[in-house]
Amino acid sequence: MNVLVWSCRAVLLAACLVAPVLASAEDDTYVGSSFGKLRVTMKDDGGLVGSFNKGGKLVTALTKDHNGWEGVWTADEAPKECDSEKNGSSYWGNIFLTVAEGGRVLTGKWGYCDTEPDTDFQAKWDGK
């Protein structure tokens, strides 16, 4: 039972540390990424959902160590089409994100289809 209590406290602590960074507004906008303008919202479970140019969507969950998010991006179009679909699209890939500079910058890696993310990602908070 102590492990369960500790796990719950760890999740709450992580949410408290991350929530002020991204939950200062209902819908934070980041610009300057290879995804174009990215709008993200933190879900109740600490994951991120978002939208970006070309019908793009982002769905992530907190990583097990609560130091970032991992998930999938999808789009209506992209330079590479996958052999399978995710979330209803054949244009998708894996993504891993972290926050830097007090929440003003999202950094990470992304890739196409089911490959390990290998392309750098960075986007700066629009601040509006």
Jot down its keywords.
single chain, alpha+beta, Porin, eight-stranded antiparallel beta barrel, 8 strands, 16% helix, globular
Describe this structure in words.
The protein has 128 residues and is α+β, with helices and mostly antiparallel strands. It has a single domain, classed as Porin (Beta Barrel), CATH 2.40.160. An 8-stranded antiparallel beta barrel has the order 1-2-3-4-5-6-7-8. Strand 1 and strand 2 form a beta hairpin. The longest helix is centred in the first third of the chain and has 21 residues. 24% of the residues are buried. The N terminus is likely disordered.
Compressed to H and E, one letter per element, the order equals HEEEEEEEE
Strand content: 35-45%
Output the strand order for the largest sheet: 1-2-3-4-5-6-7-8
CATH class bucket: Mainly Beta
Shape: globular
Number of helices: 1
CATH topology: Porin
How do you describe this structure in short?
With 128 residues, this protein is α+β, with helices and mostly antiparallel strands. It has one helix and eight strands.
What topology emerges from the helices and strands here?
Blueprint: H1 2-22, E1 28-33, E2 36-42, E3 48-52, E4 56-62, E5 69-75, E6 91-100, E7 105-110, E8 119-125
Antiparallel strand pairs: 1-2, 1-8, 2-3, 3-4, 4-5, 5-6, 6-7, 7-8
